[in-house]
Design goal:
This protein has 497 residues and is α/β, with parallel strands linked by helices. It is built from 16 helices and 19 strands. The chain has two domains: 4-266 and 472-490, Aldehyde Dehydrogenase, Chain A, domain 1, CATH 3.40.605.10; 271-461, Aldehyde Dehydrogenase, Chain A, domain 2 (3-Layer(aba) Sandwich). A seven-stranded mixed beta sheet has the order 14-15-16-13-12-17-18, with helices on both faces. A five-stranded parallel beta sheet has the order 9-8-7-10-11, sandwiched between helices. Helix 9 (244-256) links the parallel strand 10 (235-241) and strand 11. Helix 3 (78-94) packs antiparallel against helix 5 (111-132), helix 3 packs across helix 7 and helix 5 (111-132) packs parallel to helix 6.
Length: 497
């Protein structure tokens, strides 16, 4: 791992571009407008990015549609697309430190986490998805002997992608890799809070051999560029990671336009359930802390609701508070830092307001609390834990998207399952028990797209990632994600003529 000095030296060599990349070319927004991309740890402008809007989205979608219809990518042999995406994977590996640094500067994430989690998992996903391209087969249906029923999976056309700021490179990877693997063209609108790694990836895609127009990036705001993409008649699938509120808006836009398929991975309020037969309280406490303080709590799968069985709660919280003290906000470019800056001033104020509201409600804060901001010194918030939090409290109900944990005790299995399911969301959950029967029973009863048993956050490219209820409907990762970007076609052939 590089030292802090190494990362600062590399930072000084970066050449950042905020231009859109449309039809293989770097371009400014047609309006000429830009917006500042801020480094939240130092409160400085990294670069001015093109503020794309309707005109730029129209241009990008037209390029993507033309490239799709020309067929240099969509009709290429699977082996060719595989070869190109494997080359792109290799290029990403060569530029791993550059991408890690860009995202760390863009949204405040610790550099050690960028290297050890984001880039590692992204490279695995690109590699695995590329390798999967020639492993997807069609089917023959069991028809009568004088007919032949064929079932095939075909690329949909133009895929619109809207990605979040909390895991810029990794979330982009989870959507772009399978969409390209299936043979589609893509128009990506990255979050305006962290658009820079997307632009750089599009440049490397061209270098790897992805044809012009197949992968386009348009920076801009959600209410202009994002809305234009969601309403566009030539976009066949829209994939999104972000808030539940915006996911609902995008589904409305699909209904107002062409009934495009909308794949959403939306908000979460994930529970962690620790039973008194947990085999390793230390491991559970470490994972509980990691699941809420990692990435400054800016995670859709953060276990922000912790339920601990009454008989072990006091001992567990003692361990948890001790661990929370190790999550001191610090310089994201220091490899020793475990918690960096939140993404910008607006989000700092949102998280701080949630903590202040909980304190005003009279909730018991056992670690952390509201944070004072010093101008020019970065947007840092404290790791915070509230205990004895009732089900109706705002910090137990609302997704804060920050390092704020709500804790509650429970008596028995039936009570904690009811508590865990008492949320509109259903993205992830974590269960800690040594009882195999209980593990199966509870995992099945929790209303969630993903459940980790005696762990949290585990998985790899073979396992689908996504939620239920207000947490969305699509799936990232695995072969299921590649098929999300295809249309199933049935062909019925008569063999008698």
């Amino acid at each position: 791992m590089k030292t802090k000095q190494d990362w600062y030296a590399l930072k000084d060599t970066l050449s950042l571009s905020g231009q859109a990349l449309i039809d293989g070319e770097r371009v400014d927004a047609q309006s000429g407008k830009t917006f500042p991309v801020i480094d939240p740890a130092r409160e400085v402008v990294l670069v001015e990015a093109a503020e794309g809007d309707q005109a730029d989205i129209d241009r990008a979608v037209a390029a993507a549609k033309r490239a799709f219809e020309e067929g240099s990518w969509s009709q290429a042999a699977p082996s060719h697309r595989k070869k190109v995406l494997l080359k792109l994977t290799a290029l990403i590996g060569e530029h791993r430190d550059e991408f890690a640094l860009i995202d760390s500067l863009d949204m405040g994430k610790p550099i050690a986490e960028m290297i050890g989690v984001d880039m590692s998992e992204s490279l695995d996903c690109w590699q695995w998805t590329a390798e999967s391209i020639d492993k997807i087969y069609g089917e023959i249906s069991p028809t009568h002997g004088d007919t032949l029923g064929l079932i095939s999976h075909e690329p949909v056309g133009v895929v619109g992608a809207i990605t979040p700021w909390n895991y810029p490179f990794m979330m982009m990877t989870w959507k772009i890799a399978p969409a390209l693997a299936a043979g589609n063209s893509v128009v990506l609108k990255p979050s305006e809070r962290a658009p820079l790694s997307a632009i750089r990836l599009a440049e490397l895609a061209l270098e790897a051999g992805v044809p012009k127009g197949v992968f386009n990036v348009v920076p801009g705001y959600g209410h202009t560029a994002g809305k234009a993409l969601a309403l566009h008649e030539d976009v066949r699938v829209l994939t999104f990671t972000g808030s539940t509120r915006v996911a609902g808006q995008l589904m409305q836009y699909a209904g107002q336009s062409n009934l495009k398929r909308v794949l959403t991975e939306a908000g979460g309020k994930s529970p962690m359930l620790v039973f008194d037969d947990c085999a390793d309280l230390d491991a559970a406490a470490q994972r509980a802390a990691f699941s809420i303080f990692m990435n400054q709590g800016e995670m859709c799968i953060a276990c922000s609701r912790l339920y601990v069985q009454d008989s072990i709660k006091e001992a567990f919280l003692e361990k948890l508070v001790a661990l929370a003290k190790t999550y001191q906000p610090g310089d994201p470019l220091d490899p020793e830092t475990k918690m960096g800056a939140v993404v910008d001033r607006a989000h700092f104020e949102t998280v701080n307001a949630s903590v202040a509201g909980a304190e005003q409600e009279g909730l018991r804060c056992i670690h952390g609390g509201t944070t004072q901001h010093k101008s020019g010194e970065g947007y840092y918030v404290a790791a915070t834990i509230f205990d004895e939090v009732p089900a109706e409290a705002s910090v137990m109900r609302n997704e804060i998207f920050g390092p704020v944990l709500a804790v509650c005790g429970f008596k028995d299995e039936a009570e904690v399952i009811a508590l865990a399911n008492d949320t509109p969301c259903g993205l992830g959950a974590s269960v800690w028990t040594r009882d195999l029967n209980r593990a199966h029973r509870v995992a099945r009863k929790i209303e969630s797209g993903m459940v980790w048993v005696n762990g949290w956050g585990g998985g790899d490219p073979t396992l689908p990632f996504g939620g239920v209820k207000a947490s969305g409907n699509g799936r990232d990762r695995s072969l299921h994600s590649v098929l999300e970007y295809t249309n199933m076609k049935s062909i019925w052939m008569s063999l008698e003529v």
